[in-house]
Design brief:
Chain A is an alpha+beta fold and 170 residues long. Chain A has five helices and eight strands. Helix content of chain A is 36%, strand content 24%. The N terminus of chain A is likely disordered. Chain B is of the alpha/beta class and 251 residues long. Chain B is built from nine helices and eight strands. Chain B is globular and about 45 Å long. The chains are: A alpha+beta (170), B alpha/beta (251). Chain B: This is Alpha/beta hydrolase.
Chain lengths: 170, 251
C-alpha cells in the first residue's frame, strides 16, 4: 500500500512539474504559410511543400540560444515518441555558419533535419523575432500553432496535440 | 525650472570632484543618484540603465572615456523607484524624469548625448520626446542605442512587429549597435527604416560574435568579453558618428 502511495505521489509531482514547465501552444495569428526552401548540412534542398501530408514542426534556433540547446534533447525524444507516424522536425538555424552548426551538433546528438538560413530569408518570411520560435504545420501545409521560447517538447500535452493533428484528415 | 537650477547649482561643485555619487532632486520630487565622471571636454554622455540595470562595465567605460574629454553621468533610475531589473521596469520610468536629467545636462553648456541599451531605449526616447517638447529649438546631439528593444509587446511568431508609438515620433541622430548573434539583427534594417520614416537620421552597426547584453552578461563568451573590453571605443566611435551626421546636415 505504502509503495503504491509513494509512486502515486511521485507521479503526481512529475506530471505537475511537467505541466508547469510546458508552455501552451498558441494559435497561429499570421497570414498564409510562408515558403520554406533551404539546404541541410549535406547540401540537400528541403521544401516544406514536399512534406504535405505530414505534420511538420518548424523551429528557428541558434547555437548561442541557451533555451534552444536545453530543449533539443526533448525534441529528439518527441521524434522518437512519434516514430512511424507522418511527423517531421525541420530545425532552421538562424544565420550562423556551417562550421558553427557542425561543431554544435558534435556536442548535441540529434538526428532530425537541420536547415541552414545563413541569409535570414526564412527568418524574414516567417516573421521570427525571438529565438527559439516554433511553428506547427498541419498535414495540409497550414500553420496551426506557434510557441515562443524553450520548453520540453515531449511533454504529454504536445504529444497529444501533435497526435491529434497527425490523425486529422489533410 | 527654478528647482532645476537649484539642483544644478548643488550639482556643479560635486561634479568637480572625481566620481562621487550625487543626489539629484528632480522637479517631481524623485531623488536620483547619479554617478558623474567629470571631464574637461565639451561632450557629456548621459548613460541611462537598461532593463538589466547598470554594472561595473558602464563605470569602467566612463572612466576610460575621461582622458578623451568625454564626461559621463550614470543615473540610477531603477534605484530611484525601487524597481527590479526587468523590461517592465523600463515601462514605468517617467519620461519627465529623463527629460529633467537631459535638461540638467544641457545646463552645463556641453554637447549632450544619450546612451542606453535593450528596453532602456523606451524610456530614453520617451524622455527625449518630453524634453524636446519644451526645448525651444535646443537639441541634444544624438542617441546611442545598443541592441534596442522597442517592440510594443513581444511580437507573436508570424505576425507583423509593432513598435512603441514613440519610435514613430522620434526625430534625432541615432547610432544603433546591434549584436550579430541575436534575433534583433534580422530586424535591424526594419527598425532603421521606421526611425528614418519618422525623421531620424540613423546609422547602424552589427557587432560580430556577440549577443545582446554582451557587456552585462556574467557568462560571456571570449568574443563577448573582447567586445566588452572595447566598450569605450565603441561609445566614442558612436559619438563621433553622431557628430559626423550633424556635420552632414550643415550646408
Amino acid at each position: 500500500m505504502m509503495p503504491r502511495l509513494v509512486s502515486a505521489f511521485a507521479l503526481f509531482l512529475l506530471t505537475s512539474f511537467s505541466a508547469a514547465c510546458a508552455q501552451e501552444l498558441k494559435p497561429y495569428a499570421g497570414s498564409a504559410t510562408p515558403p520554406l526552401r533551404l539546404k541541410d548540412l549535406a547540401g540537400k534542398v528541403h521544401d516544406l511543400t514536399d512534406y504535405r501530408g505530414e505534420v511538420v514542426m518548424v523551429q528557428f534556433w541558434a547555437t548561442y540560444c541557451a533555451p534552444c540547446v536545453k530543449e533539443m534533447p526533448s525534441m529528439q525524444r518527441l521524434a522518437a515518441k512519434l516514430a512511424g507516424k507522418p511527423f517531421r522536425i525541420l530545425a532552421v538555424n538562424m544565420g550562423e555558419s556551417e562550421a558553427e552548426v557542425r561543431a554544435f551538433l558534435t556536442k548535441v546528438n540529434v538526428d532530425f533535419t537541420v536547415l541552414m538560413d545563413e541569409e535570414g530569408q526564412a527568418i524574414a518570411a516567417w516573421k521570427v523575432f525571438a529565438v527559439p520560435s516554433t511553428f506547427i504545420v498541419d498535414r495540409a501545409g497550414r500553420i496551426r500553432h506557434t510557441l515562443q521560447g524553450g520548453t520540453e517538447w515531449d511533454a504529454p500535452q504536445y504529444v497529444e496535440t501533435l497526435t491529434a493533428l497527425i490523425g486529422a484528415q489533410p | 525650472m527654478k528647482l532645476l537650477f537649484m539642483c544644478l547649482t548643488l550639482l556643479l561643485p560635486l561634479a568637480t570632484r572625481a566620481m562621487d555619487v550625487s543626489l539629484f532632486a528632480l522637479p517631481n520630487g524623485t531623488e536620483v543618484a547619479v554617478r558623474p565622471f567629470p571631464a574637461t571636454g565639451d561632450r557629456l554622455l548621459l548613460w541611462f540603465p537598461c532593463d538589466e540595470g547598470q554594472s561595473t562595465a558602464e563605470a569602467k567605460a566612463a572612466a576610460a572615456l575621461l582622458p578623451q574629454g568625454i564626461e559621463t553621468w550614470l543615473p540610477d533610475m531603477l534605484g530611484a523607484h525601487f524597481l527590479p531589473m526587468a523590461p517592465s521596469s523600463m515601462d514605468q520610468l517617467p519620461a519627465e524624469e529623463i527629460a529633467a536629467l537631459i535638461e540638467l545636462a544641457q545646463q552645463t553648456g556641453k554637447r549632450v548625448y544619450l546612451l542606453t541599451a535593450g528596453r532602456g531605449a523606451l524610456p530614453v526616447l520617451r524622455g527625449l520626446a518630453r524634453w524636446r517638447s519644451t526645448a525651444a529649438g535646443r537639441e541634444v546631439q544624438g542617441v546611442v542605442l545598443v541592441y534596442p528593444e522597442l517592440y510594443a509587446g513581444t511580437p507573436a511568431p508570424g505576425t507583423e512587429a509593432r513598435y512603441e508609438p514613440v519610435v514613430h515620433e522620434t526625430v534625432s541622430r541615432i547610432v544603433i549597435l546591434q549584436g550579430a548573434r541575436s534575433p534583433g539583427r534580422w530586424w535591424l534594417s526594419h527598425l532603421v527604416q521606421v526611425l528614418q520614416a519618422a525623421g531620424s537620421r540613423v546609422k547602424a552597426t552589427l557587432l560580430p560574435g556577440v549577443r545582446g547584453y554582451f557587456f552585462l552578461r556574467e557568462e560571456q563568451t571570449p568574443e563577448e568579453a573582447a567586445m566588452a573590453a572595447r566598450l569605450p571605443d565603441l561609445v566614442r566611435d558612436a559619438l563621433d558618428r553622431i557628430d559626423s551626421m550633424k556635420q552632414e546636415n550643415q550646408p
